[in-house]
Amino acid sequence: MRCKPNSAFSGSIAAIAAAARFIPSGVTSAARMAAKPTPLVIERAEGAHVFDIDGNKYIDFVMGFGPLLLGHTPPAVTKAVQRQLQKGFLYGSAHSNEAVLARRLIDILPCAEKVIFSNTGSEAVHIAIRLARAFTKRRIVVKFEGQYHGWFDPVCYGTPGQVPLVAAAESPRVHMQATAGIPPANTDMIILPWNNSAAIDALFENHGGEIAAVIMEGIPQAGAIAPNSDYIMHMREVTRTHGALMIMDEVITGFRMGLGGIHGALGVKPDLCVLGKALGAGFAISAVAGRDEVLSLTGRKTMPHMGTFNGHALHVSAALAALACYSEPDFYPHLYSRSERFARQLQGIVDEAGLTLKVSQTGALISILGLPADSPLTNYTDLHASNPATVADFAEALIRHGVNIQARGTLMPASVHDDAVLDESLTRIRQACASLTT
Predict the structure, then answer these.
(1) Would the pTM of this model clear 0.85, i.e. be above it?
(2) How many domains does the chain have?
(3) Which residue of 41, 45, 267, 304 could cross-link 50, Cys pair, CB 3.0 to 4.6 Å?
(4) What is the C-alpha to C-alpha distance for residues 117 and 124, in angstroms, rounded to an integer?
């Protein structure tokens, strides 16, 4: 397959320029801006493929930035949504499928005793933090550097791309906010290094009685960095000892790392679990699941849970259909074996081409980093050493050879990436690598 010249993207380039007259930068999410040679303008999608307005066909590993664990337009989800459309979709009242979905989540998630619904991951994170503060009557929340919990101001600190900490923060202190121009005034947030039990112990020894919650991604999306052995369990013990809540942000890992989420795979029960993305298989639904005594605060005047679109009938029907697919006996064995095989062969291809790239894979999450293949990857300092320009050039080469990945090097394998699709992807990637080395 020949490398596509810029003229092959002329329709997308023109459409983005035209949209920029009405939409800043021409796109509606900053994550889409980084794609080179241009953000793609997609006309349609099906299964493992997307088709742009220039008529180009791509094998898609972006997968909607994570929700499309079943691929594009999965038949089971499409049919469920079509059936619901005939019955209405926004009632302003309760409907029976809300309880059906909540019960299903309680059945499959180890931590879930009660469930409440919202619409986006960012929303659900804030619900969980509000619950933690209301339950503990404390203010401070602990997060980890290089982890992302949505774009709202109170948690948008210490996100991927920022400079690593010089040392662990042992007390509340000012941190730079990820939004330029916002004063660095958040003293209710403490940021710790990931995979460092000593930092957790030191913080709780000095400030345990002030901490409402610790929030974390069980597998950080940036770098797909697996936790050290017993690290998550140690955090569970420390938070329980000091009366702080443990919040697992499973917006990415929920259902991507197993039917019971990453907390089920790791054998730990957080107090609260935040779900989104794959829960709706492309429809906007999120949830907070966890301890009854914490979530029940929303059923009293203590902390009302509001939202016009909470429990939207279309999105609930999509989630129920998606969970039925994820529950098939062979779903995860096939997904994981193919993801592992693909990541291993991808590393082999870039090594053969002499490219300085490291392929990190955990479950159905793959991250390509601008690091030597043998580089350690245990924390954000290791991750921050990655060369983003190398990754962006690689992503552009793949786009020009018909493979669509995120510009930052993240790939989201889905059930539609069968052996034939992966083999074709590897062939195209090999060609893309050749174009970078000639």
Answers:
(1) yes
(2) 2
(3) 45
(4) 8
